[in-house]
Automatic annotation (TrEMBL):
EC number: 1.14.11.13
Biological classification of the source: Eukaryota, Viridiplantae, Streptophyta, Embryophyta, Tracheophyta
Name used for this protein in its record: gibberellin 2beta-dioxygenase
Residues covered by the Fe2OG dioxygenase domain: 168-284
Organism: Tetracentron sinense (Spur-leaf)
Similarity field: Belongs to the iron/ascorbate-dependent oxidoreductase family. GA2OX subfamily.
Keywords: Dioxygenase, Iron, Metal-binding, Oxidoreductase
Length: 340
């Protein structure tokens, strides 16, 4: 039997059908099949009818808007992001830059309450909005992770969700703001078409994969997110504030022994309007071991990755640049056979 390569499917399908949109309120056995297919083909899909109340999303969005509207001097009081807090243009610690400003937070309520003090004039209101949003989105992430386990016929359907449900989970939350770039200040004279095209595609957040298990991203009605197909083509993700984008992370690629692909993506600050994204990164506790599930390893599909802790992977990620491939550093060598 010829097993179709997931990477081949990725380019052919995107051209033919567009990116997958999955209705979470649909028939469970059908939904889980669609999710597995999307993770194999793209490492990306959108979900609609996810059940997160509009009010929870609107409250979080308003807190983000209120923060980014503040004068630069006030926003700086919530930074630098070492690793949590406000950042502008610098991403991580290794020289990556983008046309973005952001708030990076740990999802632990104690950490949120601490960070809130420098972020908002009403820290309790800010913390409540963030905690409610994170709680609701974590539930969606867990539901999706359980559907993934069921779709893969793994007997323990909580095998993935238990990692991010753990009280010690190292999950993060990030608000990204891509300011409008074609303001009058950008121009000495009227822009020519090539200038406009260049200005229209400045990089907001450079190409990368997310290191975690699963990312749940929601943006306002302004486009900018793109995902990469294996043939190097960038596919724009149409904005939909009522939907969540689901992004497979590196840890999920390892847990599934490469069956699900962590997708490379980027965000362009390409609009006359500001874009804001709210991003939940579901991660295991620092001490958790990540290795391919036994059910994902067969004589035909031998184990690709060596076991490592989330702390070890995170350390590697933070020592590398945004666009670097980190999983290469965790593949099994021939002489690792005896630990299989
Ligand atoms: C350049 C970097 C920023 C990042 C840490 C890293 O060294 C490499 C991974 C980057 C990333 C991408 C996804 C998330 O936005 C993020 C918070 C994460 O966990 O890994 C960022 C890191 C960051 O901005 O600190
Ligand atoms: O803002 C976006 O759409 C993408 C952001 C992103 O990929 C990230 O924060 O890791
Ligand atoms: Fe990302």
């Amino acid at each position: 039997m010829v097993v179709p390569s997931p990477t081949k499917n990725r380019s052919v399908k995107a051209r033919a059908t567009g990116l997958p949109i999955i209705d979470l309120s649909g028939d469970r056995s059908h939904v889980r099949e669609l999710i597995v297919e999307a993770c194999e083909d793209y490492g990306f899909f959108k979900v609609i009818n996810h059940g997160v109340p509009k009010e929870i999303i609107a409250r979080m969005e308003q807190e983000g808007v209120d923060f980014f509207e503040k004068p630069a001097s006030k926003k700086k009081q919530a930074g630098p992001p070492n690793p949590f807090g406000y950042g502008s243009k610098n991403i991580g610690f290794n020289g990556d830059m983008g046309e973005v400003e952001y708030l990076l937070l740990h999802t632990n309520p104690v950490s949120i309450s601490q960070s809130s003090k420098t972020i908002s004039n009403d820290p309790t209101k800010f913390s409540c909005a963030v905690n409610d949003y994170i709680e609701a989105v974590r539930e969606v992430a867990c539901e999706i992770l359980e559907l993934m386990a069921e779709g893969l016929w793994v007997p323990d359907k909580t095998v993935f969700s238990s990692l991010i449900r753990d009280v010690d989970s190292d999950s993060l939350f990030r608000l990204n703001h891509y300011p409008p770039i074609n303001t009058c200040n950008d121009w000495d004279t009227s822009p020519s078409l090539p200038q406009l095209q260049f200005q229209n595609s400045r990089l907001g957040f450079g190409e990368h994969s997310d290191p975690q298990v699963l990312t749940i991203l929601r943006s306002n009605n302004v486009g900018g997110l793109q995902i990469s197909l294996d043939n190097g083509v960038w596919v724009p993700v149409p904005p939909d504030p009522t939907a969540f984008c689901v992004i497979v992370g590196d840890a999920m690629q390892v847990l599934t022994n490469g069956r699900f692909m962590s997708v490379r993506h980027r965000a362009l600050a390409n609009s006359f309007m500001g874009r804001m994204s709210m991003v939940y990164f579901g991660a295991p506790p620092l001490h958790a071991w990540i290795s391919p599930l036994p059910e994902m390893v067969t004589p035909q599909k031998p184990c690709i990755y060596r076991p490592f802790t989330w702390a070890e992977y995170k350390k590697a990620a933070y020592s590398l640049q945004l666009g670097d491939n980190r999983l290469n550093h965790f593949t099994r060598r021939a002489d690792d056979d005896d630990i299989a």
